[in-house]
Amino acid sequence: MAEYSVLIKNADVHKDRKFSRMDVAIKGDAIADTGDLTGANAKTIIDATGKIITPGFIDITNHSDTHWTLFNAPGQESMLLQGVTTIIGGNCGSSLAPLVKGEDIEGIQKWVNIRDININWRRVSELLSELSRRSLGVNFGALVGHGTLRRGIVGDESRPANREEISEMEILLRESMDEGAFGMSTALGAAHGRGTAKEELLRLFKVVSKEEGITKHHLKDEGRNIMPAIVELIDVFHESGGKMQFSHFKVLGRQSWNSFNDALALIESARSEGARLTIDFFPYTKTGSLLYQLLPPWILEDGKEKILFSLHDRAKRREVIDYLSSLTLHYDKIIVASAFEDKTVLGKTISDLASRAGISPEECLIKMIEINGLGVSIFNEVISSDHLSALASKDYSMFATDGEGRSWPKTGMDFDSPHPRSLGAMIKAIENYASGKSKLALGEVIYKLTEFPADVLGIKNRGKIEKGYYADLVILDPASLHAPSDYKDPYLRNEGVEAVYVNGELAAKSGEVTGKLAGRVIRKL
User: Fold this and answer.
1) Of 30, 263, 479, 509, which residue has the fewest beta carbons closer than 10 angstroms?
2) From residue 101, how far is each of 107, 121, 148, 244, 278 by CA, in Å?
3) Which CATH number is 57-285+382-457's, of 3.20.20.140, 1.10.1040.10, 3.40.50.970, 3.20.20.10?
């Protein structure tokens, strides 16, 4: 009998959305066999009695690339320690490739100080080749950002692209998908998405559909105007076909919550008509977003420099303050998570900062945006927990972190405060929804973390525990699963994650990473 690398015995193994008692054998980077493997030999034998084995979790909405942690924290520790073995980048309209010109990398300056980074690629193939030469803790696949395409072809102008420009974007998108991209993402409410007309979307969606990829969307409006934002995309989608997903789906703000059921009805109506439409969401009631996104839509139509210039204009500044005042924002619940320049504001609320400065919350918000050159992120309590439970129960929903991989800070707090989703979203999803209001079976929750995103993306040989599949595996103790990470103390380690294997290598054990970086670049085949 052949000797295996690893033999895990007596576990409850996730298959077909339920669990069956069996053994799992690993040889090299693959699952060599499953079933009753009594008498088999292995270099390492693990008795997993009382434990469950699941496929490695697939994070379909991840930002480790555009937040640059894929480069400065390549081990992706916070992902591994919550069972994530594969991440998909290029989300929310922004990607690291293709770049028409080198300065197009400025599209990520909202999250990264671009003075501190270097690039040696333009095309998707070149980006993926560069990442293939690096040691990564997790597998990585990419989407093409629609905003990145527009930045390269249309520039910073917020206007509809002309036919020639659309044709150039089509060529870039088609080439990128031929080179391994899984599809395209949009953020039509962002500066480089606002000028997009239907013809442009339709032609680009058709490229993705023909290439059997997926389009993923950060909705133009997740609040009061969520309904037209959904209708706009579904309308184009009906004409283009293919697969479509709404990323980090939610309805923001108590004043907008009454649109939730109607929004789901729109999605379900489209699905009943044959649309391959899915959603993902993260299991937290606070968002993690950029502070400047609270500014009025008209000021966001152009790039960074024009936004800051407008804020310096006295009349326009007054308009912004009046707009912010009309939103009835709860400044006592908006917490500053990160800031490029002024670190003294971290962990404080807008109300606290305004009170200390003796100015209005609106003026305080604007000053922080100016001082930090738009680079301020916040946590804001605007999502209904009841909505999250309802989303979990839908057969077209899956879980995602909407975060980025982190390394644990060596001493004290990091330079900023990550959203807990970056450290515990997947374990929190199991903890919250494998019981309680959603009444989901544990096997169904695991399916939403593994096989479902793999199927939607078209990832081959991952997401299931089957002979011949890559050995991305997680051993969990279901009796002790807990994700303690919170907004005040995010760097708390998940409990109950016994081991994580990436491509057959033991990447994490008992809440600690092993230092084995076995992740690979994955491409759309």
Assistant:
1) 479
2) 12, 10, 11, 29, 34
3) 3.20.20.140
